[in-house]
């Protein structure tokens, strides 16, 4: 099957449109058969890093032939999008590959997708490797609800303010971070979210020196504080745990307020402060009020 045939297995032609391909995050054999089929027959190939994609194609015996291989990244997206859109307008199939992982996840393909959709061109995805999902899988943290937050700001004050916005999110949080800043980032996480939360640091997923460390945020912050770290980093943080409120705490809070507030107002304030149902707190306030009479 030659590149010029434009055929997929079974004699099917690759549909005109923009095809997003997921590429391995470490192990070259993690690429899917479908992604290789698309790379084999696409009319035009674009990549965040043309050198890494060319190497991947060589590993798997996919010939480029006379087809264009276009670099498309953060620094040249504005200039290259018109060229790719012209290819789509001409009815060609355009394959775009991230440097590693799934396109549009911390990747410059987003604007290309929006431009193609706005112009009325079909957009397809050949799913595959993703550092987000790989890290979530090995973390042991809840996976029923998660939030990918991307890269934190580089400076400490901005990072702490940014991280604090996620403090109450009821989901597993997933961040990418530079190995040079992971120690500082964990320290800021402890300050912004609380050091007692469970967290996981994944390094070099699917690669030879893959490492997964688990513990509280404070424990991990102490481990990474003075370490020189290399490789790709994913940091995951468990959701906030429900606060356990003792009956004595409710009673003390109500008594402090009942001396200066109406029963209804005291109950409402305590319920909000402790995160408890208003009706239950109101009934407790009434009992205290009756005992005092």
UniProtKB/TrEMBL annotation:
Predominant location: cytoplasm
Q: Which top-level group of life is the source organism from?
A: Bacteria
| Locations listed in the record | Cytoplasm
Coiled-coil boundaries: none
Can the keyword Phosphoprotein be found in this entry's annotation?
Answer: no
Record keyword Cytoplasm present: yes
Write out the GO cellular component annotations.
Answer: cytoplasm
InterPro entries registered for this protein in UniProt: 4pyrrol_Mease, 4pyrrol_Methylase_sf, 4pyrrole_Mease_sub1, 4pyrrole_Mease_sub2, rRNA_ssu_MeTfrase_I, RsmI_HTH
Q: What is the name listed in the Swiss-Prot or TrEMBL entry for this protein?
A: Ribosomal RNA small subunit methyltransferase I
Q: Which family does it belong to?
A: Belongs to the methyltransferase superfamily. RsmI family.
The organism named in the record is Phaeovulum veldkampii DSM 11550
Catalyses which reaction(s)? cytidine(1402) in 16S rRNA + S-adenosyl-L-methionine = 2'-O-methylcytidine(1402) in 16S rRNA + S-adenosyl-L-homocysteine + H(+)
What is known about what this protein does? Catalyzes the 2'-O-methylation of the ribose of cytidine 1402 (C1402) in 16S rRNA.
E.C. number:
2.1.1.198
Q: Domain named Tetrapyrrole methylase: which ranges? A: 18-221
Question: NCBIfam families given for it?
Answer: 16S rRNA (cytidine(1402)-2'-O)-methyltransferase (TIGR00096)
